[in-house]
Amino acid sequence: MKISKEIQFLLLTDFLTINISTFFLFLIKFKTGLFLTFTEHSFIELLIIAPILYLFWLIVFHVKDIYKSFYFRSAIEIGFNCVSGITIGIFILYVLTTMNFKEFSGKGLLIYYSILCFFVGSGRILFKISLNHFFKRGIGLRNALIIGYNKSAKKIIREYRKGRLLGLNILGFIDNGRYNPEYQGLRTLGNLDTFEDIMKENKVREIIISVEVKDPFLINTIILKSKDYNVFYKVVPSLEDIISGNVRTFELFGYKLLELFPDILTPFQRMLKRAFDITVSFILLVFVLPVMAVSAIIINFDSEGGIIFKQKRVGKDFKEFTLYKFRSMKMDAEAETGAVWAVKDDPRITKFGKFMRKTRIDELPQLLNILIGNMSFVGPRPERKFFVDKFIRTIPFYYKRLHVKPGLTGWAQVKHKYDESFEDVKEKLKYDLYYIENVSLKLDFIILFYTARVVINFKGH
Fold this sequence. Notes:
Elements: H1 5-30, H2 43-63, H3 75-100, H4 106-136, E1 142-147, H5 151-161, E2 168-174, E3 182-183, E4 186-190, H6 195-202, E5 206-209, H7 216-226, E6 232-235, H8 239-244, E7 248-252, E8 255-259, H9 267-302, E9 308-314, E10 320-326, H10 351-359, H11 366-372, E11 376-378, H12 385-394, E12 407-409, H13 411-415, H14 422-437, H15 441-456
Parallel strand pairs: 1-2, 1-5, 2-4, 5-6, 11-12
Antiparallel strand pairs: 3-4, 6-8, 7-8, 9-10
Helix pairs in contact: 1-2, 1-4, 2-3, 3-4, 9-11
């Protein structure tokens, strides 16, 4: 993953301030004579301790999610988040050191806490002030477009002209109206037909969607046209959006915008989810190898064709990957029909294929997808690009499924039958959206419990 220059400079700032803090702690603790020490400590030890403590704080700050972008965040919020992260880290150090290191007393940690809050907090606030200074000089701005031309769009421009939207360089409007409006020097650059070209030519990073009537199909179109360009989406909120609480709010110049794809899980929760996926998929692969070996032999004798079925599926952020399954259909099952769904009592399914689908044995090779990182145990089921392109144009909010990693099983799978029609897809989307907007480790375990019950009771399709 590419790290932005902003975050690179922030990491450098933290590197300096954390090591300065550690240096002052070492001086106060071991060189001033204010504290009773059992042994003499040299500066050589500082060269060993400092990198270890820096890595510790790097992990704590990452888990606490305080390496997110400083764009649109106030100095107060930055300072508060920094102190909050340091507080958690000091508590962890207290638990670790009081058990193992007598010389690292609670008083010493209190001094370290104060030094860190001062240097690291001040460093981050100064970094934000410096960032704003560069923004005012036109350095480091993100090119932005406003989709729509209305009262909300005009208000954004007025505040932007007052210098209250630091960090953005608004280029103009994208509007499908019959005429080309202009407001305070910003003009209409094109419509949705030319939107992708405009975005590509101008290296747009921020898209502000300002439409008076929320049209999910319009948002679908915008997402589809801009999905390959690493952009951030914000929406002018309606009262319904604010009440629902399904999106993260950004306070810009006293005017609220909503982030279209907020991360509901914290970095620590994402790390736990990934650790669970790696550990459990590896253990299961070891335990089910005999089952997979026997299944491979039976498939080979049951019908002609390969043992493993490989197919391109669309994963997180529209990225395609190769999905692995045991082949449960006859060879070249879609040669005459093209891409179609399997239906109940599908004649293309082999004899052993029916058993595998009932017991979900055909899904076992996807443990490799989970181990690699293409999939998770829990998430919306991945679909083929042929169907994704169709659904995103015809089903409101379908694009939200592509913001999370696909799963071996999901809320839609345990609450609804397999897809056999377009109506099934729309119905299952309700369950997928519920999962996406309420994702948690607790919900993951509930879904895994229901999935285990389906497998044990031979209720697969």
